[in-house]
Amino acid sequence: MITSSRFYHVTHNLFSIKKLGLKLTKMVNPKSKKQWYPAQSTDIDTLPSVKSLSKTKYEPGKRANRRVAMLNKVFMKQITDLMSTGTVSMDIVGRGIEISKVQVTPDYQSVRVFWVCKGTATDEETESVLKRTSGILRHELSTLSVMGQVPYITFVKDKQEANVVELDRILSVADYGDDYEQTQIGHLLKTEFTLNTRLSEEMKAKIKQLEAEIPLEDDPVPEMTHNVYGLDHDKILSRLVAARKKIRDAWDNVDVNGDNTVISYRSSAVKPVEDNLSNQREELADFLLKRQIMQNKLRKQMRNDREQLQIQYELLTDQTQDVDDESDVYSDDDEDDYLDYEEVKMPSIDRPDKLS
């Protein structure tokens, strides 16, 4: 008979005790698993925070930032060109509108064009004109195919420039008062001096006489210097012109001496006299004689070279013939020795197993 025993782990008893404890606690303190939280009252409307309002849904990356920067430059160029030469230029030209920068939003929904305001009453009129022209500008940009879909254009006052203009106005009022009117610099310069005091006729006559007696002396105009960055350009140019003139004169004064052409860089006062016919004949005869002597030397040298080649060829043929004869003699002797070796009979040697 086979008996089997079942072993229980220690944790079995612990688990059963824990389970009984949990059931006992549920019976003593009945609770649901879901926690209860007090509901918030819907009567109070919570206001949105500044961060939630300023946060954009689309946050561009590095590539998008590069594209936005490039679009800013392209829109800046195209919008300024259209405002100065396009169909809207009739309403804009003459108002002194200055575009400071163009900014495309990260979501590509609008283009903000910042313009510099002057801080005067004409700013409101200028703003209304720009608002009217925004739609026309967008249509013209779409015809140029700058983007697939051109964003809406909005003109915005450049607050930084406006604050600078307002600060200048306040400082001018503080310095000169409210009734100060700025004059142009050109009005301050006058051609003639005016004298508020009245002069007598005798004094005027004396002044005219003195002006007539004193001669007018004009200040001499200083000579223009050519030494820019320590280089005397006038001296360099004069050297170049002199060298060019020297070369030109040299080619004009070419002396032909025999076969060699000699270029003289000194201008000759008297032109060279042409050789007469007898001198030319003598030079021709000398040339022919020299040529004949040179040809004879060449023929003699060629003859000597040919003879040396013939001697070398004969020596080589004799050496090759001697070598062939020696090889024939050596081959005949070898054959005789081989035949003598075959005729000699080798003595037979008996094996040890046969002897036994």
TrEMBL record:
Locations of Basic and acidic residues compositional bias?
Answer: 342-356
Q: Where is the composition biased (Acidic residues)?
A: 321-341
- What are its GO biological-process terms? rRNA processing
Record region (Disordered):
317-356
Known Pfam families for this protein? RBFA (PF02033)
Q: Matching InterPro entries, A to Z?
A: KH_dom-like_a/b, RbfA, RbfA_dom_sf, RBFA_mitochondrial
Name the Gene3D superfamilies for this protein.
3.30.300.20
Record protein name field: Ribosome-binding factor A, mitochondrial
